[in-house]
Design a protein that fits this description.
The chain has helices at 2-27, 34-64, 74-96, 109-133, 138-163, 168-190. By secondary structure, it is an all-alpha fold.
């Protein structure tokens, strides 16, 4: 049950982070056609599953080759480091507050969605790798780290479209705090 809590905290942290990014994208949308939205959503789901699977597969390969030793907490320490780096990235994004030109752009929505997925895919890959080192169930990872953030992205696009991007800093901070809470929980489990 503790494993579920850790994975859920990490998944919610990524969800908040992706929400913050997608709020900015939503604030710039001119309009979205249903066909484009469905294509973009399917691409995002496929991309997140692929990147999560690649990270998880790399971790499984390292475990299978006995490159990482299961008797020492090195796998947990690597997991903590990876999520600490993602949390630090979120805090820097909150502090930096790069300005967003809140202007309705009539660019292709699918092209923007692809750019967005490619930019956040590294976080999903690293999450899959880190949690794969802990030999956590792939199904649990799929739900919490790949599919849950999709809901955050959809909510962020909608909120950004109607209300602007003012809450993105809070999303970054909350995401970083959730990641740190997951790390603390993982560290407490080591001792």
């Amino acid at each position: 049950m503790k494993t579920f809590g850790i994975v859920l905290l990490m998944g919610l942290g990524l969800t908040a982070y992706f929400y913050g990014i997608s709020v900015c994208k939503g604030a710039q949308l001119m309009r979205v056609e249903k066909k484009q939205a469905i294509l973009s959503l399917l691409f995002a789901i496929a991309w997140f599953v692929i990147t999560l699977s690649a990270g998880y597969g790399l971790a499984a390969l390292l475990l299978h080759m006995d490159i990482t030793d299961r008797t020492y907490p090195i796998n947990s320490i690597l997991c903590v480091l990876v999520f600490a780096l993602i949390a630090i990235r979120m805090f820097f994004a909150a502090i930096r507050q790069t300005p967003v030109k809140e202007e309705r752009l009539d660019e292709a929505f699918v092209k923007e969605a692809v750019r967005f997925c490619l930019s956040v895919g590294i976080s999903v890959f690293l999450a899959g790798f880190a949690l794969g080192l802990l030999e956590i169930s792939y199904t649990l990872l799929l739900c919490c780290v790949a599919l849950l953030p999709i809901l955050g992205i959809l909510a962020g696009l909608r909120v950004g479209y109607f209300y602007g991007y003012w809450q993105r800093v809070w999303a970054y901070v909350v995401g970083g705090l959730l990641m740190l809470a997951g790390n603390i929980s993982l560290i407490c489990g080591l001792f």
